[in-house]
Design a protein that fits this description.
Blueprint lengths: L1 H21 L6 H6 L13 E3 L5 E3 L8 E3 L8 H9 L4 H17 L2 H4 L1 E2 L6 E8 L2 E7 L22 E2 L25 E7 L4 E7 H8 L2 E3 L4 H31 L7 E2 L2 E2 L3
Antiparallel strand pairs: 1-10, 2-3, 4-7, 5-6, 5-8, 8-9, 11-12
The protein binds 2-acetamido-2-deoxy-beta-D-glucopyranose (2 copies).
One 2-acetamido-2-deoxy-beta-D-glucopyranose (NAG) binds next to β5, β6 and β8.
Keywords: Membrane, Signal, Transmembrane, Transmembrane helix
């Protein structure tokens, strides 16, 4: 009897784990099928969920006090998940940057700042620098939109401006699969570049701060619809097991002659 219960639980757990690792499919699938380009990630690793704290407090390396940073409250757009799930070398930093940028934009004049007027001559990149190390990755400029200096006119309604919260935005996470993801340390500085033909802008952020942002997107735990039935099944099993043991003991004491009867689901063969 108990073996069947254990089997049942095992099957249940196997089935649910299968479901979890499948994740919310279909978000990126169509694109993958049309473009068999290995820069695109599939949704098979899509198992992160966003848990924003009210603010992020961070103390930089040479600072003496914590500074409060704004956090985006809402459902993050698909590209943030895509960076975080990419497992690419810069995935965590770019997911962190995207969330920091959304937080900054929502903290000031949200009705304008979440629209970004994309320019054809702009190029953006992020450099990761410490004393021994230098690496650079390109990124779409809208991911760092709140760091780009804007003229007052650019806040007028513009039908070509990009809504940085749009779920339709697709990005290439620039996967560099040489088997190593970047280790983020407190010594590193992340330098954001916004280069146009006439102008170059630079912003410096501690990479560890971006990591804090990225970590507000956590691997999803086992959901309630999985653990509740499993726990109930386990409790029932233990209950039935103990019940049978008790029954046996009591009957043994009371009526040792009458063996071999079946009472309920406890068979007594001794
Ligand atoms: C922007 O300019 C800086 C400084 O010249 C350079 O290091 C960086 O690679 C440039 N980024 C892009 C995307 O062109
Ligand atoms: C992977 O590439 C980065 C630069 O893109 C390099 O610093 C790192 O050492 C490489 N790792 C391996 C294992 O080749």
């Amino acid at each position: 009897m108990n073996i069947f219960y254990l089997l049942f639980i095992t099957v249940l757990v196997k089935y649910s784990v299968g479901k979890i690792s499948g994740g919310p499919r279909g978000r990126f699938d169509n694109k993958n099928q049309r473009k068999p380009n290995n820069h695109y990630v599939s949704a098979h690793h899509a198992h992160f969920s966003y848990h924003p704290p009210s603010v992020i407090n961070y103390m930089c390396r040479h600072c003496s006090h914590f500074v409060t940073y704004p956090v985006f409250h809402g459902l993050p757009p698909t590209y943030v998940y895509k960076y975080r799930e990419s497992g690419g070398r810069f995935g965590d930093l770019l997911a962190g940057l995207a969330l920091y940028n959304l937080g900054r934009a929502s903290a000031e004049h949200w009705q304008y700042t979440h629209y970004y007027p994309v320019r054809s001559d702009e190029k953006c990149s992020m450099q990761v620098i410490d004393r021994k190390h230098f690496e650079e990755t390109k990124l779409p400029c809208f991911v760092m939109s709140s760091f780009v200096a804007r003229s007052p006119e650019s806040f007028f309604p513009d039908s070509n401006a990009l809504d940085i919260t749009s779920p339709q935005i697709d990005i290439k996470p620039y996967l560099q699969h040489n088997g190593s993801s970047l280790k983020i340390t407190r010594e590193q500085e992340c330098v954001l570049w916004h280069n146009t033909t006439l102008n170059k802008e630079r912003n410096i952020i501690p990479c560890a701060l971006l990591k804090e942002y990225s970590e507000t997107m956590k691997p999803s735990g086992i959901p309630v619809y999985v653990w509740l039935p499993s726990t109930l099944a386990l409790v029932t099993t233990i209950y039935v097991f103990c019940y049978c043991l008790c029954k046996r003991k009591i009957r043994k004491e009371q009526d040792p002659v009458n063996t071999g009867t079946i009472i309920g689901y406890c068979s007594t063969q001794y």
